[in-house]
Amino acid sequence: MPFQARFAPIKANLLLQLNIIVIIFIAKHQTGGSYGKREREKDSRHCCQKKPDMDKLTELIIVIMLGVTALLTAWASWIGSLHGGNQATNYATSNNLASEGNSEYNAGVQQMNQDMILWNDISSLQIEIVFAQNNNNEAELAKLCNQLFYKMAENVSETMAAKIDWNTADNSSSDPQATILAWLEKENSMSSPFFDENYVNSYFTKANELLAQSQDVLEQGQKDNSNGDAFGLVTVIYSVVLFLLGIAGSFNHKANKYAVVIIALVAFVIATIYMFTLPMPTGFSITSFFKG
User: Fold this and answer.
1) Is 193 helix (H, G, I), strand (E, B) or coil?
2) Which residues are within 8 A (CB) of 239 and not within 5 positions of it... i.e. 6 or more apart?
3) Which of 273, 206, 197, 217 is nearest to 96 (CA)?
4) Close Cβ partners of 62 (under 8 Å, ≥ 6 residues apart)
5) CA-to-CA distance for 61 and 274, rounded, in angstroms?
6) What pLDDT shows up at residue 51?
7) What is the Cα Rg of the chain in Å?
8) Can you give the pLDDT at residue 38?
């Protein structure tokens, strides 16, 4: 038998096996490709579902922040205006108190000048009385004592009387000479009260109190001014936040949109924390606006 004829069945068998292997490979390849394609389509649909969910969440955050920021902007503007009203009131009150204090100061100066003139007259009469006593001039002594008695009874204030040991109860004495001579024996009768700084300052006690109140009210008005400016700054920051949130939706690139929203959120948090550190207006009570 020729060589080719002997190997023909073997060749046919090998070709058949090769065809079977090729068919199996093609079948497996087609099956695996379909499975991979389905998995890729599934992953694509999953990503597409996640993407809309993230966009919806971002839009929801923007809407909520717009509403809250608008409310807090109105609140900051209102509180700032209340501080401004308190500032104006305190400034007006401070000016009124300062005017009253200056009037009292001028009155104190005038009263002190009058008392200094009175004391000069009293001192002159005291010296003349001493001379009359030394000269044993009874008639002159009686006249001078009468002059000094009525001058003091009619003109010496209680503060000055206490300082020079004059008893105001003696103003109605029936014996002016004895009263004056008894008074001259006292320790402070011939000492000028104007050497005492505290006594001089007593003329301006009321004036100083009014001026001190004026300064306190003025400082409170300045604080109200600063607090009103601070609330104004908060309002400006909230306005920037509203602007950023308003333009965030116009960005097509997601990274830009998220960056703008994050910046707005940070500015919102900073402004809110700062606002709650500021004091409320003096005497503020939310319930007072609902009382009839």
Assistant:
1) helix
2) 73
3) 217
4) 245, 248, 249, 261
5) 22
6) 53
7) 51
8) 52
List Cβ neighbours of 267 (8 Å cut-off, separation of 6 or more).
237, 240, 241, 244
Instruction: Look up residue 161 and give its amino acid.
Output: A
Give the type of residue at 94: S
What is the CA angle 25-27-29, rounded to 5? 70
The confidence score (pLDDT) of residue 105 equals: 94
Q: Give, in order, the Cα–Cα distances in Å from 95 to each of 86, 102, 215, 228.
A: 14, 10, 9, 20
Q: Which residues of the chain have pLDDT under 70?
A: 1-52, 287-292
Alpha-carbon distance of 152 to 189, in angstroms, equals: 12
Tokens, residue 50? 């996640």
Q: List the one residue out of 239, 230, 232 whose CA is nearest residue 279.
A: 230
CA distances from 54 to 58, 101, 243, 254, 286 (A): 6, 68, 22, 10, 40
Contact 97, 217 (CB under 8 A): yes
Q: Are 149 and 180 in contact (CB under 8 A)?
A: yes
Residues 6+ apart with CB under 8 A from 119: 160, 192, 193, 194
